[in-house]
Amino acid sequence: MHGDRCYGDADVSDGGGGDSALFVLDPRPGLMPRWLTDVEFAVLGAACDRLIPEDDTPGASSAGVPDYIDGLLGAFLSDPPRIWAGGPTSGRHGGEAAFGRFHRLSRLDELAWRTRIEGSRGMAEREFNGPVRGLQERYRTGLAELGEDFCDLSPDEQDERLRRARAFTALLYEHCCEGMYGAPEYGGNRDTVGWQAIGYPGDVQPRGFSDAEVSGP
Amino acid sequence: MTLDAVIVGSGPGGATAADVLTRAGWSVVIVEKGRNHLLDPDDLTRPAADYSNDELKFVSRHFLGPDPLIEPRTFRRGEEEGDHVHVGEVNSIPTTVGGGGTHADGKVPRFREEDFSLLSTHGPIEGAEVADWPISYDDLEPFYAEAERAIGVAGDAEVNPFAAWRSGPYPMPPGAPMYGAVLSSAAAEGIGLHPYAAPTAANSVPYDGRPACNNCGFCAFSGCPIHAKGDPVALLTRAMATGNAELLAETFVARVRTDGHRATGVDVIGPDGASRSIDARHVVVAAGAVETPRLLLLSGIDHPLVGRNFMVHFQTFVIGILPQRVHAHKGRAVTHVHDDAVIVDDAARAAAAEAGLPWIRGGLVEHGGPHLPVMEAKMYPWGPKHKTFMRSSPMRDRMWAFTMQGEDLPQLTNRVDLDPSVRDVRGFPVARVTYRPHRHELVASAHHAPGLVRVLEDMGATWTMTSTSPLAEGEDRRGPLSAIPMSRHVMGTTRMGDDPRTSVVDAHGRVHGLDNVVVADSSVFVTSAGYGPTLTLVALAARAAAAMVGRDRPQTVR
């Protein structure tokens, strides 16, 4: 697989020109810096598995969805931050494995994404339209609302907690969907299991589809 | 140094102006608020490699901008709702080099002859500012033809019985029809509709140094990874190759400077936050029909109609779930359309009469399907059923959909102005959209939707649903959000005309009383027609720019 090129330990590539990153990040579990605490990460995994459970195909946590979410919350622990994967190809259907080269952010991109993730924290430059509650705080309080004992509960009790934490669960489900069916370079959809489970090919450049594949059943 | 022209915005309008002006030897600076992900930063005459098949980047994470946290807009239906009912994303056509061309799925129909003379053809409608354009289809036809050559359009001149006359064929033949469109076209023909291969700005064969489209399916929302799409890449790379253009990305135009009679240039804020002035003999404003009036208002160019008559297509969605998979992720998003709902026929007249309206017009109907799994997943409930739904895929792989881009009548009360309190990251008042549809749009939607339901049923659909954006008042399922039009086809906020009392710009886009300021985007539209605005705004921008360099015909590039 061409894709192997983006999975080497501390793999350094020259990345090409422009605003692409120099470092190719390794999304394997345990190799990325982690933002959530161990307890929070365990609760997150259990909660994700209630939202997208395992059946004869992998559930959210074995698909890496918690890593996707932790990777978003801790996006700025990496340089460049893991916000926008590179282009034009992933290497999965030929071409270069370029998705792993995350884009550098501009000054304003960084302001927007730090505000979204970290919250405005009373900083004037982030509060020109008032305070913004960040994803980190929403996760910290949302996971606390599910409870440190969440992993020990029965599935029915877990679902009840999730239903009670309605606003947080809605946010969590959005991110579960992104982590399950988004590109693997963001940390979820490990080895494309999310796509395989639904028969979806994912990114297809530079292969694309033939005219016969487009027009036929 | 005083430039010949500064161009505000690098979307299809600004890029067209840059192409025409630089070929005539003019020195121009193109100022773009968003980032450059379209052109190779090391060689702006070549495309970049930043686009990809990546739903998260393009749909969930604002890669093409604007990010609503730093550049929000506000919305309300009317003054009675107060200052605004929503702050955030309102009609975010991309803020990036290439503008709206980058995310568009590339359907580029021309308008028809009567679209330029709606008032004299069909007459007035109470509560709407129905008017004729100051130019005719015949005036614009050479520029339509040139626009199709310049960006590259694939189509078949013989297949749409309602099409306006053309001086020549399309530059390329149509691409491969999508499987779902093969089925829906046959079913539509079965009830007497006239579907045809959509004129599409995606190369069906190698064209102008760019490759043929390889059907990857990521047209809508995404930039094209292989640059087979007729976004402004061809126009901008050609302009840069003349050596007469400079591109300033991540640069915000804070005001157009004027001395009361003439513009003298613009004041900008660069990527580092520093302000400076750019002197120019002409200012071309092509920031889109929301940001263009905002800039004029920020600049004190406050003709009473600036921002008025804001239009956006009233979209009717008729969706159906089919027994078989139609894999809409393969192919060019929409390969077939039909014009029947644009035509004022006896049935439309009868429906109008019953509703107490003189006439109704719908819009182009696109045959397509959803293709993105994250978007799909978010529609299903969480829990054990999630995967069952995802595997059987009723809302994506088995779904086929008709989208009618319904004509939206101009109304004085629908407008863009400056929000009284909300600011962008640079401290400037943001654009506020005040909008509610005219009853005409609702009646036209209700008239045309049932036929589309029937087509889906004839295709074998086991379930169908009809919805609109915006939703009719009283049907709000998602609070104020459902009142915000989803269409990105924004138009009409500096309407063109011969009379300065009833229009903001003249027939060549020049602001009345300030004739070295030229508006070169869909802000100048007098009426919205039922067709996507891109090709028409490109043709108008080409015509306006040709007039600036003293030409009344396009200069052919190919």
Explain how this protein is built.
The complex is a heterodimer of chains A (about 220) and B (about 550). Helices cover about 40% and strands about 0% of the residues of chain A. With about 220 residues, chain A is mainly α. Chain A has one domain. In chain A, helix 1 packs across helix 4 (about 135-145) and helix 2 packs across helix 6. By secondary structure, chain B is of the alpha+beta class. Chain B folds into 2 domains: about 1-50 and about 90-105 and about 110-150 and about 230-310 and about 410-420 and about 490-558, 3-Layer(bba) Sandwich (FAD/NAD(P)-binding domain), CATH 3.50.50.60; about 165-220 and about 315-405 and about 435-485, 2-Layer Sandwich (Cholesterol Oxidase, domain 2). Chain B contains 12 helices and 22 strands. Chain B has helices at about 10-25, 55-60, 120, 135-150, 180-190, 235-240, 290-300, 345-355, 375, 385-390, 440-460, 535-550, and strands at about 5-10, 30, 40, 45, 75, 85-90, 195, 245-250, 250-260, 265-270, 275-285, 310, 315-320, 335-340, 365-370, 400-405, 415-425, 430-435, 465-470, 490, 510, 515-520. In chain B, strands 1, 2, 8, 9, 10, 11, 21 and 22 form an 8-stranded mixed β-sheet that branches. Chain B has a 6-stranded antiparallel β-sheet with strand order 7-14-15-16-13-19. In chain B, strand 1, helix 1 (about 10-25) and strand 2 (about 30) form a beta-alpha-beta unit. The longest helix of chain B is centred in the C-terminal third of the chain and has 21 residues, at about 440-460. In chain B, about 65% of the residues are buried. The mean pLDDT of chain B is about 95. Chains A and B meet through helix 3, helix 6, helix 7 and helix 8 of A and helix 2, helix 9 and helix 10 of B.
